[in-house]
Amino acid sequence: MKVVLGVSGGIAAYKACELLRLFTESGHEVRVVPTREALRFVGEPTWAALSGNPVTTDVWDDVHEVPHVRIGQRADLVVVAPATADVLAKAAHGLAGDLLTNTLLTARCPVVFAPAMHTEMWQHPATRANVATLRERGSVVIDPAVGRLTGADTGPGRLPDPAEIFQVCLRVLRGRPLDLAGRRVVISAGGTREAIDPVRYIGNRSSGLQGYALARTAVARGAQVTLVAANVALPDPAGATVVRVESAEELRAAVLSAGADADVVVMAAAVADFRPAVRQDLKIKKTDGEPEPIRLTKNPDILAELGERRRAAAPMARSASPVAVAGSAPGALTSSDTPEDVLAQGSGPRVIVGFAAETHDVLANGQAKLARKGCDLLVVNQVGENLAFGTPDNAATVLVAGGEPVEVPRGPKEDVADAVWDLVAPRLT
């Protein structure tokens, strides 16, 4: 694949060297097209040496090859990392003052922007409008990470980890449509831990790999993603807002809050069914004789709760006022509504996807869960030693409410993720 790596003039330009290395080492042919300002941070010899291709910023170099047209025409992917507010503005308004902006105008392949700038610049209405314009035209604009910026500043605007930008680009190169553009997606991932005492907990083997694959794939298909991660030791997916939780109660609160205005909720996390009825404040010490039994109590069934709230909300949603202001007609939303209130009044997810990990009678147990949980899709997979948990691959059957099951053969977890989104997207239209 022919990749154009555009680099604009921000301090994060040095991180693009790692992104370039990832592309070249995976066999892609990369042409680096920096701006003049980018060369003040990383020089032309570095880009040429790492890419093995000539580097220029000017449309007047090698004119006989018509580079301002040919580079974009021949590309399979254009990724701009970092993308400054200036380059986003020029791209949104169709300006073409240098080789990079000319390339963006002539490219007919997928285009990915990875913005990096100070928080105030990212949040400025002009930048937000430019980002919205680029997304409407079919570009993937990855939301920046939150963290340390230039100097002592901290906030949204940090360039995501180059390895995570690379993962989004690989998924874009898979050729999937931008059928989630503008959609708000909430995904839970990982496994909850229920404290017994300050040291011990009840947990499970979920690594979060499948949930993270769902998040990365959704970002590549244009979605705005909130990832509720329960005890996951993985780097944050580029473009996703990550909310970290530990217990089932924390996960429930985070999913209900983020899901209140979401189009889709995907419950891929392995949520503990039970928790200790009493959490000990001090570490339980070993004594002679048998230990005291630990009494368990049920955790909330978050997936079933989402389905039940949606069923209960349907009549109210049909009669509710569309204007969400205090003093509106019965059923209208007010500024004091909690996430639970919002879901109860019909503003919850349009599509609910559950996951069921089974060790035996996989399809029978899955069909029973689908009926009981009230979700639209239920992804059923067999788990066990070297199966699903902690492995890079997975196989699954996606059960469809009112439809035929869809088999997903064993392969990378991204294949399961794409199969899920392929089924979700039509339900949003």
Automatic annotation (TrEMBL):
User: Which Pfam families does this one have?
Assistant: DFP, Flavoprotein
As recorded in UniProt, its EC number(s) are 4.1.1.36, 6.3.2.5
- Which amino acid positions bind CTP, per UniProt? 273, 283, 300-303, 355, 369, 373
Keywords (alphabetical) are: Decarboxylase, Flavoprotein, FMN, Ligase, Lyase, Magnesium, Metal-binding, Multifunctional enzyme
> Which Gene3D superfamilies does the record match to this protein?
CoaB-like, Flavin prenyltransferase-like
The DNA/pantothenate metabolism flavoprotein C-terminal domain covers 180-312, 347-425
The ranges of region (Phosphopantothenate--cysteine ligase) come to: 185-429
Which GO terms label this protein's molecular function in UniProt?
FMN binding; metal ion binding; phosphopantothenate--cysteine ligase activity; phosphopantothenoylcysteine decarboxylase activity
Give every Flavoprotein domain span. 1-171
GO BP annotations, alphabetical order: coenzyme A biosynthetic process; pantothenate catabolic process
Names of required cofactors: FMN; Mg(2+)
- What reaction does this catalyse? (R)-4'-phosphopantothenate + L-cysteine + CTP = N-[(R)-4-phosphopantothenoyl]-L-cysteine + CMP + diphosphate + H(+); N-[(R)-4-phosphopantothenoyl]-L-cysteine + H(+) = (R)-4'-phosphopantetheine + CO2
The record describes how the cofactor is bound as:
Binds 1 FMN per subunit.
Residues covered by region (Phosphopantothenoylcysteine decarboxylase) = 1-184
Extract one GO cellular component term from the record.
phosphopantothenoylcysteine decarboxylase complex
Record pathway:
Cofactor biosynthesis; coenzyme A biosynthesis; CoA from (R)-pantothenate: step 2/5; Cofactor biosynthesis; coenzyme A biosynthesis; CoA from (R)-pantothenate: step 3/5
Under the heading PANTHER family, the entry gives: HOMO-OLIGOMERIC FLAVIN CONTAINING CYS DECARBOXYLASE FAMILY (PTHR14359), PHOSPHOPANTOTHENOYLCYSTEINE DECARBOXYLASE (PTHR14359:SF6)
Briefly, what is this protein's role? Catalyzes two steps in the biosynthesis of coenzyme A. In the first step cysteine is conjugated to 4'-phosphopantothenate to form 4-phosphopantothenoylcysteine, in the latter compound is decarboxylated to form 4'-phosphopantotheine. Catalyzes two sequential steps in the biosynthesis of coenzyme A. In the first step cysteine is conjugated to 4'-phosphopantothenate to form 4-phosphopantothenoylcysteine. In the second step the latter compound is decarboxylated to form 4'-phosphopantotheine.
> HAMAP family in the record, alphabetically?
CoaBC (MF_02225)
Similarity field: In the N-terminal section; belongs to the HFCD (homo-oligomeric flavin containing Cys decarboxylase) superfamily. In the C-terminal section; belongs to the PPC synthetase family.
What protein name applies here?
Coenzyme A biosynthesis bifunctional protein CoaBC
Species of provenance: Nonomuraea pusilla
